[in-house]
Amino acid sequence: MSAEIERYIQAGTRENTRRSYKSAIEHFEAQWGGFLPATSESVVRYLVAYADTLSQNTLRLRLAALAQWHVSQGFPDPTKAPMVKQVMKGIRTLHPQQARQAEPLQLVSLAKCVGWLEQQAAQAREHGQTGRMLKCLRDRALVLIGFWRAFRSDELCRLSIDHIQARRGEGMQLFLPWSKGDRENTGTTYKAPALERLCPVEAYLDWITVAGLATGPVFRGIDRWGRMGETALHPYSVAPILRDALAGAGVDSEHYSSHSLRRGFANWANRSGWDQKTLMSYVGWKDASSALRYVDAQTRFIL
Prior knowledge:
elongated, about 55% helix, about 10% strand, DNA polymerase, domain 1, 5 strands, hpI Integrase, Chain A, mainly alpha, 2 domains, three-stranded antiparallel β-sheet
């Protein structure tokens, strides 16, 4: 296979997926001691070995990685064997797992969080603490855009100034070349409103103006000396940023994650009278089950 062909094949598989699959294959070979190409019997033994220690989502990811490796190398896929499917069914029966969901961020907690960040930014500016001020302005923009656009953490971290148009008092458009629901990588343009308070547009423009950013990633790392990096934040850093800001504002942040922004918006929209179709269109969900997973049971849509 030529290097050029390999480059396009790699581009057709998302970086997070490639990284997860690579880790899964290494786990199968190095940690468990399996051999590739694998047989369906060895796959079954592997599943049984970790049935009570790994989540079912992780096991499904491991199977997908093994399937992809075999298909890409021209070998029969051992994960399609009936015995493998039957064992996975047995694991679901013997090791039932309750789906874990992040606590939805309520509007009152969002307001406390943003208010604390604004207060900290003002104090930092007054004391000449540039790095601290920049972090507060960045985090305010991150939280507000994440909430009002119901973005996932990886979508927030892939936002580029080159693909955003924003006007104070009017709104903003944010283009993402690809997202989880955009399997064909055609790109999606999202809109966010200009608001009287808790405004994502104001927060975004304040951040890039003070930071002096004109191109590249919107959200970047800032070191202890206040120096800003050139690369985007890692998606795993979004949850700690949110929890730290909530804790600073006096909100118990233990049960919050980056998905709290997405769940928080979905619940706010539902309580504000949005119907299911409107919410699905705004967020980008393709099926109703996705919307229902994000909305609390006691506040489900009234049909």
